[in-house]
Amino acid sequence: EPEVTQTPSHQVTQMGQEVILRCVPISNHLYFYWYRQILGQKVEFLVSFYNNEISEKSEIFDDQFSVERPDGSNFTLKIRSTKLEDSAMYFCASSPGQGRGTYEQYFGPGTRLTVT
Amino acid sequence: AQKVTQAQTEISVVEKEDVTLDCVYETRDTTYYLFWYKQPPSGELVFLIRRNSFDEQNEISGRYSWNFQKSTSSFNFTITASQVVDSAVYFCALRETSGSRLTFGEGTQLTVNP
Judging by DSSP bridges, how do beta strands A10-13 and A31-37 pair with one another? Predict the structure, then answer.
């Protein structure tokens, strides 16, 4: 069964460094998302992406964040200058489309980001 | 603004007991979608079910059943004859048709003891 994959599974970085989290969505999906989950808390939406542009973003997704689909398979989240409070599990998700019956978002296993 | 509330932070049951996880939502949209996801100790998010606001039929899938009540803005999830493998955090989520984001509740930690 196709699945969303994410690399790395765990990333440790120093405050102020740039990180890039990578995701390979399910191959025939058209919509891509990033969410984050601070330890012990709920899952929070960051951004959605369709047709090579951001379709929606949350208030969390400020200028420190950016997303890109550099080729036909990868979808990346970049954090330009990490802060301690960026430490969280970051989930990538994808969905087939927006039409009726296609609203499920399938999540990857997550990347645990630790900022020291 | 959309909001999902899961008032039960933690539930502990003994194997074979039935357990219901509550979910209450708020939205201004007339058409929306509700979801349940399971997060086992390994951390991934596993999709369980989607319910459309225009379809109020309840659904049963094996030991799982879902009760959607539009009148009370609730979408509760029942596990019948719970098993230890059901131990996980369960999240209810809402998606409005006016946007693409899933809004999650705080989650309910379910522990099923042998």
Answer: unpaired
pLDDT mean over B75-85: 96
Q: Which residue of A has its CA nearest to B91?
A: A42
Whether residue B62 has pLDDT greater than 80: yes
Q: What is the model's pLDDT at position B38?
A: 96
Helix, strand, or coil (residue A45): strand
Q: Rounded CA gap, A109 and A111, in Å?
A: 7
Residue with more model confidence, B54 or A11? A11
Is the CB of A44 less than 8 angstroms away from the CB of B107? no
- Residue of A28, A20, A21, A37 lying closest to A3 (CA atoms): A28
| Structure-block tokens of residue B4 | 């999902």
Nearest Cβ partner for B101 among A42, A45, A100: A45
Please name which of B105, B107, B74 lies closest in space to residue B88, comparing C-alpha atoms. Answer: B107
Q: Report CA torsion sign: A105, A102, B60, B51.
A: positive
- What's the mean pLDDT in A22-50? 94
